[in-house]
Amino acid sequence: MSTVLLVIGVVIGVAYIYRHIVVKGERCTSQARLHGKTVIVTGSNTGIGKTTAIDLAQRGARVILACRCKKRGEAALEEIRRESGSNQVVFMQLDLGNLKSVRSFTETFLKSEPRLDILINNAGICLQGQTEDGFGLMFGVNHLGHFLLTNLLLGRLKEGRASRIINVSSMAHNFGKVDFDCLNTNKALGLGTSFIRVLQIYCDSKLCNVLFNHELAKRLQGTKVTCYALHPGAISSELGRNTSLFLQIILKPITTFFFKNTIQGCQTTLHCALQAGIEPLSGRYFSNCTVRDLYAKAKDDAAAKKLWEMSERLCALV
Questions:
Q1: Which Gene3D superfamilies does the record associate with it (predicted)?
Q2: What is the pLDDT of residue 247?
Q3: pLDDT of residue 240 exceeding 80
Q4: Rounded to two decimals, what is the model's pTM?
Q5: What are phi and psi of 30, to 5 degrees?
Q6: 172: which of 60, 98, 121, 234 is 20 to 30 A away, CA to CA?
Q7: Exposure string over 54-67, b if 16+ CB within 10 A, otherwise e
Q8: What are the b/e assignments for 245-282, b being 16+ CB within 10 Å?
Q9: What would you report as the CA-atom Rg of the chain, rounded to the nearest whole angstrom?
Q10: pLDDT tens, 123-132?
């Protein structure tokens, strides 16, 4: 009996340490105030996007909530204003799965907002399907929509004294690949709707985020704009809300105990957006508020350039 109790005690102790040290993670230490600055956060009606928006609004920023669903976006708007105590929070509808919507959003923003200091490409989905333009849903939303959005806003970002672009990726990119043949043939990163296939395509889309960030940094050299990719951590949020109810029920105890909450999960985003002195690290990848090395495939110059040029064509930018 004493041995059993000892084992149970060790397991509980290890779980406690994991949750309070590994899961909790580092916090953004920047005390930066953002009065007079404007930030766009995509997917900010839920999850780490919403907690990121709350923090930035509390610091005095004018925060643009760029969200697909008008009802959810307006509900988040009221909550973020209430939580932050700021009325400098605005909802603008943006459907990253519709390139026409991306263009409409940027046109509205550029007409109504005189500056842009930080662009946070946060929105992401883990769901198979097709966009309005016929692209694979995860390729279209997680990569292509943000690619077009960023390019259409670069002019305004370059007008600032020191602007930043934050690309929220995931450590899942380590398991990803970019199948250019499949993109050319099917306008998707992969086909199939099984759980394993959906996870693989999600990983592929996250690799696109890191490759985009890598190539973007090169193209921003000589400007006052810098960019950073990041892994926010395993987050207990609504990203998996489109999975089956059975799977959600099974995973709930695991995600609740072993995953970060959204406040913990937004810390690396805030670090990349706010931390002073990281400009020389433009193009790098962060996790747990620390710069990390990447595997060769995630900083492949040829693949990053090829993805960029293909994305330009698909978005009709060339």
A1: NAD(P)-binding Rossmann-like Domain
A2: 53
A3: no
A4: 0.88
A5: -65, 135
A6: 98
A7: bbbbbbbbbbbbbb
A8: eeeeeeeeeebeeebbbbebbbbbbbbbbbbeebeeeb
A9: 20
A10: 999 999 999 9
Distance CA 245, CA 238 (A): 13
Who's near 82: CB < 8 A, 6+ residues apart? none
Cβ–Cβ under 8 Å, residues 144 and 315: yes
Q: Which of 142, 131, 209, 128 is nearest to 173 (CA)?
A: 209
Structure token pair of residue 241: 């809300």
Sheet holding 285-287, edge to edge: 89-93, 62-67, 38-42, 118-121, 163-168, 225-231, 285-287, 290-292
Any idea which residues carry the catalytic annotation? 202
Residue-wise pLDDT for 155-189, tens only, equals: 999 999 999 999 999 999 999 999 999 999 999 99
- Residue 121, SS3 per DSSP: strand
